[in-house]
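User: I'm putting together notes for a lab meeting next week and I want to include a structural view of one of the chains we've been expressing. I don't have a solved structure, so I'd like a prediction I can at least talk through. The sequence is below, exactly as it appears in our construct file.
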Amino acid sequence: MSNSQSATRVLHISTWNVPCGIATYCGNLVSALENLGVVNEVHSLQPHSWVDFLPQDVRRLGDEIIERARAFDVVHIQHEHGLFGVACGARAAARNYGTILGGLLSLGKPVVTTFHTAPLEQSGSLRFGNPYKVFKNWSRARTWRSRVVGHYRGERGLARAIVHTPSTRRAYVRSGLPVESVRLVPHGCLPPRQHQLTSARAKQLLGYDPDHTLLTIFGFVGRYKGHDVALHALASLPPEYHLAICGGAHPEARDRFFDSLLRKIDTLGLRDRVTITGWLSAEQAEKYYAATDICLAPYREDCGLSASGAITWALSSGRPTIASKIEAFQAIQRESTAMLMTTAGRPDELAWAVERLSADPVTGARLVRAATAYCERNSWDFVARQAVDVYRDLLPDGAVRFNQPAPRPKPTLDEQIAATQSLEGWCSLDKARALAALVLDARPSCIAEIGVFGGRSAIPMALAARSYGGVVHGIDPWSTAAALEGDIGEGNRAWWSRLDMERVHRGFLAAIDTFGISHSLRVLRMTDTEALTRFENGQIDLLHVDGNHSNVVSRRYVEQWGPKLAPGGHLVLDDIDWDSQRDTVALVEQTFEPIRREASWAIYRKPLAVPDSQSRRTAA
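Assistant: Thanks for the context. Below is the predicted structure for the 620-residue chain, given as structure tokens.
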């Protein structure tokens, strides 16, 4: 088995760790390649710097990349004309890319370039009309062929191109690239999204009426994406339709489209029906994904895209998508009827499609199934393996070497639960297994635990919930003051006063990473009273109470959190054998049905309806 010294090393040239679709693409590709055992590094491009570059600056950048490339087996360039200085002109962008490509090939390094857009009007097809346009096209094509194409036709044959659609492949072959050097690889897709919230609940959290229909466009705002077309379509739809634009102006945008879009919203009287979110945190993005009824991708016909990361986000969202009939999207549609397609630039047709899809849930479900299957077929793992095949064509004897340890058997759920016994806390293995079994049996969507400490009960529940997309909300302030609230006894008071809560909290956060449950366990570092407003009545399906055991606090947990538990939901109480818990247990057992009662803990079920004879004070 190869070690890290002999594994194939790839240097990626791309934007990196910035709000940019190509940076996101490169990040997903690098992660997938690393999972395969390829060693990767990234040389970050700064597209905004080109406008200030002098010729010697371009040579310096090329020298830096060439020098760094000496230690690598393959160089993989992510190409979009803007990344190489199209702000200075298409000919300048071709020259800059050609300079870097030629320098790498002269070093004897295999170079793979992924082209994310079509050539810039390099066909020279405008033989009549505006003489300036004819000359401009001819000049661009001449520069491209003289500064780029020759490197792909060189004797060494060390240059390869990756494109995403058949039409883009045809365009680059027509621009002069040898047909055998251009490889078709689809844009990668994220795994189909598992929603943590219902659509109605997410709409409520975002301030929408649950009965409204939310249309969403994901990604940066740009003229080529047809946001203005979506606004005109919205204006012709009934008032219960709303539009969320989940993104903002691109940081490198030089036009005034964003300003014109804001003015159009006012002109069309849509201010109360359109939301432009700007950049979203992962938590907020999840709310919009869950709240969305229909994803829109009304791109313009002349956008020039080879593929779009934003359309893959829509396809993996679990919601139906309406998209323009542009070649990049039609290539997807020919493989899998995953979208409802409309003519680009036609808001009336888009509005018709929205109303049709809103009234036809069967078609919507069929589109989602097809989109899910497409995303699974074209995962980032698949794309990475295709990239490795291209590397293999360029390396001596096809020698792509992987840095992968011997495969280990994946631990079973029970083995993982047993491993949580090493964490701080007092949850026994028997109880941890019972909690996990309850989660797997009841499949609660929303789980809450009051009193997390080291995670010995929260993490087993999260491990079980991970299998179907449930989420555990761990509520604990990790505060000495909260631990000392009420009459907890002198022995307990002395022990809690000496405890380093920050150390326990750090250990818990580390355990989340160790067990790989960051998507299944959300940490609310706050008191139970502070967390109350985070949950609606009836929202929680499973509540585990294991916080402060003083009489006043444990009773408060049941009285205040009982209404948050859904009818038929489960309540788990810990340390029911403590004297300070006696009143709380009696209060619960007046209303809740015992399911399992052990010496120190018990599982109860909340009735579907509280008996009329019970007083409101005692009914939890």
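A couple of points you could mention at the meeting. Confidence is low (pLDDT under 50) at residues 122-128, 611-620. Residues 5 and 403 are 8 Å apart (CA to CA).

User: Perfect, that's what I needed.
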